């Protein structure tokens, strides 16, 4: 029974994409961070202040501007002038897993920041999915 549960969980929760490439240490991903509440990006400083009350980890970020859609952009305050992380060995899971191959994000046209050394590829080709038994 456990194997069936594990199988279905993997089918629905696992990504259909594989992250490839490597970090180029340009620091762009640490300077152009979007935070979301549900499916909506944070667009208001008051929302961000409430987020910091909910989770103290948000104190590690500063508002650095807005994107073309009005969403707030954040910069990690642990980023050093040489574009390296000042707490690299103690960095959080979000940073360790970036960029995470979230299927919904990629299927809707999302991609890593331009110039990023990471890229995504499907985990198998289309024909493999058709031949699934």
How do the strands and helices of this protein lay out in sequence?
Elements: H1 2-13, E1 17-21, H2 28-31, E2 36-37, E3 40-41, H3 45-54, E4 61-66, E5 72-76, H4 93-97, H5 103-107, E6 118-122, H6 126-130
Antiparallel strand pairs: 1-6, 2-3, 4-5
Q: What does this 3D model show about the protein?
A:
The protein has one domain (12-130). The chain has six helices and six strands, in the order αβαββαββααβα. The relative contact order is 0.21. The two termini are 19 Å apart. The chain has a two-stranded antiparallel sheet with strand order 1-6. Strands 2-3 form a two-stranded antiparallel sheet. β2 and β3 (40-41) form a beta hairpin. The protein has 133 residues and is α+β, with helices and mostly antiparallel strands. It has helices at 2-13, 28-31, 45-54, 93-97, 103-107, 126-130; strands spanning 17-21, 36-37, 40-41, 61-66, 72-76, 118-122.
Comma- or semicolon-separated keywords:
133 residues, alpha+beta, two-stranded antiparallel sheet, 6 helices, 6 strands, 31% helix
């Amino acid at each position: 029974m456990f194997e069936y549960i594990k199988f279905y969980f993997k089918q629905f929760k696992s990504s259909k994409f594989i992250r490839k490439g490597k970090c180029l240490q340009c620091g762009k991903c640490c300077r152009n961070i979007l935070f979301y509440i549900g499916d909506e990006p944070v667009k208001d400083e008051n929302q961000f202040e409430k987020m910091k009350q909910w989770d103290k980890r948000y104190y590690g970020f500063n508002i650095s501007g807005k994107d073309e859609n009005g969403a707030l952009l954040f910069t990690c305050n642990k980023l050093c002038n040489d574009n390296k992380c000042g707490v690299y060995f103690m960095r959080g899971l979000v940073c360790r897993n970036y960029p995470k191959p979230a299927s919904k994000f990629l299927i809707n046209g999302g991609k890593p920041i331009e110039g990023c050394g990471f890229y995504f590829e499907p985990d198998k080709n289309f024909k493999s999915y058709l031949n699934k038994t």
